[in-house]
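Input sequence (200 aa), recorded before submission:
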Amino acid sequence: MLIQKIIFACILFLFVPVMALGETTGLELNVNASDVEGKFEFRLPDYEADIMPGAGVLFSDDNYLVSNVNISIRDQILSPALLLGVGFKGTFGTVEKPNSGGNYDLGAFGFLLIGEYDFRQDPNVAVPVSLVATFSGSPDPLCFMDTERFFDFTFTVYGHIIKNASILAGYRHLNFHFGENADEVTVNDNAVFVGCKLHF
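Predicted structure, token format:
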């Protein structure tokens, strides 16, 4: 738990002041019966490309606590409604060992892919809805501590009810792979969540 406290402190003291200087900022909170997740992202000013740093924390009913920091570059592809991004994501946390005491320490640095389709930018549809899919993966050479492989995937539908706020519903899949050889353990988690996002 000490690692999580250190990471959370770094997020607060390093990212939040920088976020205040960003041109656009998004704050998001997702929940379901057993999980709560908070994340934020912002656009760095004075760059031609959309450079988007971000961070997040996911807590799941004492089964795991996962923090991440990420950065991506995003651009429109083929049409104003389609946005694609690539970047890097660092993930840290603890995952409770199945059927035993103690925790696995999660540590991974991997690749991040983002796809977004905003129907508000499509003149043929023009409805206040956008779809966002994210995928990040960390193979063995980019993992450390107890982690051998890690990947996650999310798909989220945003309903833009007013200019600066959205409601959302989504699906999240996490895959944690720990240990080596006979001690290998894979932990999967699938969840549906709802929440809201504020835009500044």
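Checked by second reader. Confidence is low (pLDDT under 50) at residues 17-22.
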